[in-house]
Amino acid sequence: MTETLLAERPAVTNRDVLTIKDLKAYYINEHFGVRREVRAVDGIDLTVRRNEVYGIAGESSSGKTSLIKTLAGAIRPPMRVVEGTVKFDFGGKHIDVYAEPAKMQAARWQHLSYIMQGSMSVLNPVRRIKRAFNNFAYRHMGLDSAAFRHRVESHLQRLGLDPSVLEAFPHQLSGGMRQRVTIALATVCEPEFIIADEPTTALDVLVQQDVLGLIKEVQGRLGSSVVFVTHDMSVHAAITDRLAIMYAGRLAEEGPTQALFDNPQHPYTAHLIASLPRIGDISTRKSLAGKPPSLANPPSGCRFHPRCPIAIDRCSKEVPQMLPSTTGGRVACFRAGEISVQ
Ligand SMILES: Nc1ncnc2c1ncn2[C@@H]1O[C@H](COP(=O)(O)OP(=O)(O)OP(=O)(O)O)[C@@H](O)[C@H]1O
């Protein structure tokens, strides 16, 4: 890693950059007059603060990607926001994402950017890397082409990349290098808000560490807020300040990452933590019975109740609300705190 990775990080502030209220976004399909709703985001409230790395965890199909697409205003039919609001405050510039789509469109790259899982989805395989920078970043920076090139080259250098990558085609770079290039692309306009969707999933462990270090360094230097999505709890432990656990389209728990790991209040959080491998422990990890529910026909009450080892009658009848927890966060469980992590 380069020396810049050790840069000091400014403290997380109390200023909210993103505020999501009672957000519901469904995939709505109609076939032969029969309507089918997949409730992928179903009543989510959360805020992300300035200079915070906010993690979203949960197993496959829990709605993580749907949630971040919704908050970025990047949804397409059949997905629709059916209720709730998503609002940004970019240093006094307020954007209500679904009331002001044009404002949101204009804010992309400059104020908000995405680091996606498959770097190839943003890097065109038949175009040199420099074309991606020209296409996405040039018009947002208000620089002439020589100054733009200079800015891109010094940004790449700061991130430990040789500017010669600009002349390369994506297939000439390794997977880790391509992901570093997409991070450089997503951050060259110095956005206040960065969304990273499973950015390290396809990479081997050492490259993963390198890419995580890079995201952390860029975030620290820019003072940006980051929403970091991955199912990998060990990555959350390494990089996030606060963590939200998603289950079947809803939040199960949210809190400071360390506190959540030390003292999970929701049985699903406890399960995710208990299933992490530990050095020197060769015992078999117990998996959770059952599988995540269909979001087209989710269970009544708490959606986790059919798989929950401590469910009571009430759990199948009432929906638990997110209430303050003893870890300084929030939890949606009638039996919060009654669990232990093995
Ligand atoms: N275009 C679509 N039409 C209908 N349902 C969809 C569509 N895209 C996703 N879904 C459903 O929405 C739910 C949430 O999916 P989503 O991709 O947001 O979950 P995820 O937690 O990000 O999963 P993963 O970790 O596997 O990416 C799933 O049940 C999925 O099948």
UniProtKB/TrEMBL annotation:
UniProt GO MF annotations: ATP binding
Subcellular location: Cell inner membrane
Classification via InterPro entries: AAA+_ATPase, ABC_transporter-like_ATP-bd, ABC_transporter-like_CS, Oligopep_ABC_C, P-loop_NTPase
Gene3D superfamilies: P-loop containing nucleotide triphosphate hydrolases
SUPFAM superfamilies linked: P-loop containing nucleoside triphosphate hydrolases (SSF52540)
Family from the record: Belongs to the ABC transporter superfamily.
Domain ABC transporter: 18-273
Membrane topology: Peripheral membrane protein
UniProt keyword list: ATP-binding, Nucleotide-binding, Transport
Identification of the protein by name: ABC transporter ATP-binding protein
PANTHER family: OLIGOPEPTIDE ABC TRANSPORTER, ATP-BINDING PROTEIN, OLIGOPEPTIDE/DIPEPTIDE ABC TRANSPORTER, ATPASE SUBUNIT
One Pfam family per UniProt: ABC_tran
The organism of origin for this protein: Devosia yakushimensis
Coiled-coil intervals, chain numbering: none
